[in-house]
Each structure stands twice: as C-alpha cells, then as structure tokens.
Amino acid sequence: MVDEVRRPPAAVVFDALGSRYEKAFASSEAHRGSLRWLTERLPPGARVLDVGSGTGRPTAATLAKEGHRVLGVDVSPVMVETASRQVPGAEFACADIHTMPLEDGSFDAVCVYFSLLQMSRTEQAGLVERLARALRPGGLLAPATVPLDVEDFDGVFMGQPVRVTSFAAQDVVAVVRAAGLTVESQESVMFTPAHPDARPEPHLFVHARRAEGTDAFPGGPDGTRRD
Fold first, then answer.
1. In CATH, what number is assigned to the domain containing residue 14?
2. Burial (CB count <10 Å: 0-12, 13-18, 19+), residue 41
3. Could you identify which of 43, 108, 112, 183 might form a hypothetical disulfide with 143, taking C-beta atoms 3.0 to 4.6 angstroms apart as the criterion?
4. What is the pTM of this model?
C-alpha cells in the first residue's frame, strides 16, 4: 500500500485533481482508438492490468464493459475511491506499481496511459521491462505518454506543480522494443485538455505485443539482462 506519510508526487497531484482530470481528457479520440485496438485483439474474459488507472474512465470502464477482468492500480487514494465507485465491474488497488508484486506471464494486456511522466527515465525503462514480463506470450502492451525530450522539468499541470521526465517519440518506441516487445503500431496526435490553463500537447500511443515463444526478453528466457 502507498505510504501516507511519504506519498509519491503523483499521488499528491492526482488526489488534488480528482474527477477534473477525467473531464479534461474525456474527448481524446486517440485514447478511445487505443482501447479499440486492444478490445479487437483480446481473447474473451482477458485479464488486464491498468497502470495509473485514475478515475477508471475510459480505460477500465471500456474493458470491463467488454467482459474483461480488469485490475486498476493507482497511487492516488482519491482516484482509487472514485474508480471503485464509477466502475464496479473492475477491481482497483491503491498501490505503487514499482513495489507491487507482479507474477510473470499473468496478464493478457497491460495499459500504461500517461502514468510514467513523474518517474525518472531509469524507472520508466525498468517498469516497461517489468510489465513486459508480466504479459503472457502473445500479450499486449499499450503505453501512452507525452513524447518530449525533457528530464526533471518543473511545470504546472492543471494548476498543480509537477516535475516531468519523458523521452522523445523514437526513444519511447526504443524503450518498448528493448523490453523484448514487438511494436505493431503507433499514433502521434496533438490534444488540448478541456481546462482553462491547458495548451495543446503531443500524445503518443504505442501498441506492442510479446512474442508467442518463451524466450521473448533480452538476456534469456527469464528476462534477466546479461549486460
């Protein structure tokens, strides 16, 4: 569970934003398109992990409506409470994905929509690799981010101070491939959140798949790097 005394920065930001975040991003057609990409390829009753699940909408709500078993994970207690209320057909946990136990090969798909931006580049790459290992053979990974070449950038997001780190678009794709996944498609769009202080921002949606074979990851079948 999240340490309430030393909460991650993302928990502080998204506790404050609450449902305003959902409203600001509700009109993202690219996000809905990414979810369509997933639902068209998932087997019936698939097990899906939603990292940074927020209010549960649209990601968990869309997948649960399709009959999939969704586990949403978020560091914000406010977001988890909201998601549990709004999407009763999914399960939500208030936890830090970095320390949450994940069994290898346990999910048919993992969604990571805009939940990497307050992590260091090393943390982002390490988490993507860990999430790739959590996929079953043939499983799908759908990460989305703001593809900017910035590190520890101090800014303001919907009135909240944030420190953002990201990769340029080609480096985001490289991180996914380095985790042993095949990138099947990607979409880059400009999106303006519905918020008075919002400006147009680039969004990148990547869709990737774990190989069907067992030796899918760099370094050997157990995914351990030999660098």
1. 3.40.50.150
2. middle
3. 112
4. 0.88
